[in-house]
Amino acid sequence: MARPIARLGMGIRIGISCAVLAGCAQTMPPAPAPAVAMPAGWAPGETAYGSQGLDPAWWNRFGSAELARLVRQGQASNLELAAALSRVRQAEAQARIAGVALLPTVDFGGGADRELLIGSGSSGMSASAQLQVAYEVDFWGKNKAGVAAAAAALDANREDRQTVALTVTSAIVSTYLQVLSLRDRLEAARAHVANAEHVLVLVKAQKSAGSASPLDLARQRSVVAGQKAAIPDLQQQAREAQSALAILLGRAPQSFKVGDQGLETIDLPDVTAGLPSDLLARRPDIRRAEANLAEADANVAVARAALFPNIRLTGALGAQSSALLSLLNAPNLLANVSASVLVPIFDAGRLKTERDLAIARKQELVQVYRAAVIGALAEVGIVLGQIRSLDEQSRLKKVELEETRLAFDLSEIRYKVGAEDLMTVLDTQRALADVQNELGILKLKRLQATVSLFKALGGGWHADAPAGAVVTAK
Known about the structure:
The protein is α+β, with helices and mostly antiparallel strands. The chain has 3 domains: about 1-30; about 35-105 and about 140-305 and about 350-460, Outer membrane efflux proteins (OEP) (Up-down Bundle), CATH 1.20.1600; about 105-135 and about 310-345, Outer membrane efflux proteins (OEP) (Single Sheet). It is about 60% helix and about 10% strand. The strands form 2 sheets. It has a 4-stranded antiparallel beta sheet, with no helix packed on it. A two-stranded antiparallel sheet has the order 1-6. Strand 2 and strand 3 (about 125-135) form a beta hairpin. Helix 2 packs across helix 4 and helix 7 runs antiparallel to helix 8 (about 420-455). The protein is elongated.
């Protein structure tokens, strides 16, 4: 009688020790979130509005129905987006697989034997069936932590898909603007050719009148040829940009064509002063870094729990009979309930090393998260600086264009009356073409910088949103 009592006492001590260890494992405080010093905004001294008025369909602010239609097509048919969606579905399946560990497993087995005697005697038959249930007690929270890690991985894949979607949408808008810009430049190049040919007519008339030399005529013919030579290159650039846009839409370039319009049909979205830095919380790459950090935190809990014993409860219910028809008779039923504890004793430090590896991985992701936030802040600051610079360049270039056009008109008039030589006309003509081309490039850069700002902030915003809390600098 003493031996069973001693075993019972040992079982009680083991149970108390397990409960204490379980309490220690499950009450450990979560790791604090990594702190990153955030500025209040990107324009010190200006009033910032809150981030409540988010605008997910930010491309509509360019005022183009065709652009909105192309974005919808791209979001539905882009191949990179389709692949990202498949990765999300894989992560969903992994999350469901991880959740199975919290549930018991049930197995059923059965069999039948028949004895055939050679010679005299009678044959015999026996059958058996067994239903087995097994369940692992999640004393240390390992299975729950595994489920949490899988859920965080799912969140990370969803944010990764959002990153792909934002990148693809930005590329569609930017490439579409490039196509329209190249059409404007082609139209301007053809206008330059017409202008040069008009001057060529004047030079021929002056030569016939003896006021112009063959050298003047050759120079103007050279200008006309040079202006015409620029057109094929622009046409090829337009074809390449349109093909790139078709690929982004998941379509064959040969059957794709953009409508006949230019950048004059595009609205330039306003950039409100004092954008709050909390808009960055929407960026999918930052939210993905947060999800990766949560997954690493859960993996640390899994690795820590692996150092503790595994406790499994099993039960079996079965039947045995020598006659198939009496398989489930009560006298033949068998039942068995058991519990087992598997305690790691020696594994050459593998479990502890795996825990240290999980902790180091988490520490790495903390720094990755901080780098992502700081990089996002720098990206937005750079883009806003580009927008300010491009606005100032465009303002000055428009003034230069007005003066250059006036200079060309005056030089042409003076050349007609013989008060100016051809070189002056050629110089002002060349300057006018250069300034118009540069202004078109600046317009495209300004629009694409706005697209980059939308991308850097994780989407659009409403400028008339009510004021809200702004992240303060730490």
